[in-house]
Amino acid sequence: LEHLPDGTFEATLEGTQVSAQTVLLATGVIDKEPALPNLFDAVQKGLIRHCGICDGYEVIDHKIAVIGHGETGLGEALFLRTYTADITLFSLGEPLRLDSAQRQKMHAAGIK
């Protein structure tokens, strides 16, 4: 991949050159699945979602739960607060690991 002086990009893929204005690097992630019964079916039915950025608009004004803990779990819940006001943060038995400032932020956002 080469960034050209005019601001565009050029890539050579198997001998073929491809030019683009923008390059999106999709490195992939591995979802950390919660230990829940019938998880596969719930994901297939759209009851459990993995990506707040991809799927947040689908929960506009719905009652949702975010599985997580600590600063990361709270961050996800706060992000999804953009889409709905009714959010509960589930830690699935893990300590919530939020300091007093984070707990105050959670409370101010109405996250249970």
Order of helical and strand elements: EEEHHEHEH
Low-confidence regions: none
What is the overall number of helices?
4
Main sheet makeup: 3 strands, antiparallel
What structural class is derived from the secondary structure elements? alpha+beta
Which strands sit side by side, in order, in the main sheet? 1-2-3
Query: Can you give the mean pLDDT?
Result: 93
Q: Gyration radius, to the nearest Å?
A: 20 Å
Sheet-strand content, in percent, reads 15-25%
What overall form do the CA principal axes indicate?
Answer: elongated
How helical, in percent, are the residues? 25-40%
Detailed description of the structure:
With 112 residues, the protein is α+β, with helices and mostly antiparallel strands. Helices cover 27% and strands 18% of the residues. It has helices at residues 39-44, 52-55, 70-80, 100-108; strands at residues 2-3, 9-13, 16-20, 64-67, 87-90. The strands form 2 sheets. Strands 1-2-3 form a 3-stranded antiparallel β-sheet, with no helix packed on it. Strands 4-5 form a two-stranded parallel ribbon. The radius of gyration is 20 Å and the shape is elongated. The mean pLDDT is 93.
